[in-house]
Amino acid sequence: MHRLARSALWLARFVAALILLWLGGFGWFVASSYLMRADPSNTTDAIVVVTGGRQRLETGLELLSAGKAKKLFISGVNQHVDRDELLHTLGPLPENAACCIILGHTADNTFGNARESAEWMHEEGYRSLRLVTSWYHMRRSLLEFARAMPRVMIVPHPVYAHHVDPERWWSWHGAPLLVLGEYDKYLFTWALPLLQVWWPPPPAGPPVRTTENSRAQSSRATMSW
User: Fold this and answer.
1) What CA–CA distance (Å, rounded) separates 130 from 122?
2) How far apart are CA 27 and CA 157, in angstroms?
3) Residue 155 counted as domain residue
4) What CATH number should be reported for the domain holding residue 72?
5) Which parts of the chain register pLDDT below 70?
């Protein structure tokens, strides 16, 4: 019984330490995200907007119109929405902005946003970007984008929703759950490389042989004879 009580005590202490560590990390996450401020004075090769709200798009367009980058890349656009349709919903645009907007349709999450943007940046030969997304989403986005583009300079440009007062964001309906969920996603994203070291993904299986592939191989074998 004494040994059991001691084990239970150590387990309780361990759980308490984990809870305190989680709470401390959450405090850092909120404070660092809240205190992060955009620096509009810097110019970059590109502006990348991660879809998820109208104000993100409006902010990206304002930055492009102000000459803060050469092109605007909008990542994660619905495949059924084309460029003209998207721009029409945002109203009239300056001529110098309408010609330099590119849409990405392949991403459906933050990991995909980073990979899709990295591929486009490589094609354009760009070395710097301004990342536009919501303030609570910025930490995880910076982590994913830095992993996808380790040699690219990334300038964060967090966005606050119009109906959210940054000084009283906790009063916004649903904000606590939103930020808590984003914090947990950030922790998982941060820890994923460590988890993959301990539990590497299973190796890819052998290529699937189809009837057409078999026929093609047979034809090549016959021709070689």
Assistant:
1) 15
2) 21
3) yes
4) 3.40.50.620
5) 1, 94-96, 162-174, 201-225
